[in-house]
Amino acid sequence: IRDGLFDLSVRAVRECFEVLLERVGGKDNLWVGLVTFDSAVHLHLIANVRQPSMHVISDLESPFLPRPNGYFGKYQDVEHILDSIFESIPDYFASRTIDGCTKLTSPCAFGSAISIAQLIIKDYGGYIHAFLSSMPSHGPGKILARDMKIKNTERENQLLRPNGSIYTNLANVLLQSKISLNLFVCANTYVDMATIGSLSTVTG
Asked: Backbone phi, then psi, for 179, in 5-degree steps?
């Protein structure tokens, strides 16, 4: 948020909609949903509502959908709701603290967010566009720090291999649901791309 990545991501998503609308032939053919996350996962209720609302999932070990529907809808029906969300969520996260942590150091529940996004669109397939600015550090998918002392040694190639199988397994779940994931990472600290990159390389 401090570096402007959040605002940039929101603008990028909006521009992505414009490109997708041209590709699919109009608002009636594009279905969308929105999930945000910090130490919890936030499901945005956008379909068949007059104003946006948000369900916060803090039980990261057993991700679920509080409602069977409402998190996914035709763009032409939910465009005004999405516009309202995009206007409000930067301020929401800018003022949010997590377990005493500031917004700049709050935990990152990336793995659980992807699992819940899969639940939303598993019956449809499609694309997940994921934006990440820090190392996944909370809940399932938490990545432990690597031993960087092996850099510039004969064991350095271990740093280029996934650190565990959780993201490869999650990618296979996405693949079974005919879901591809596009991953956009912009961080000012180390992020283990060899591990989380499996989400994109496996799903294509």
From this structure: -115, 130
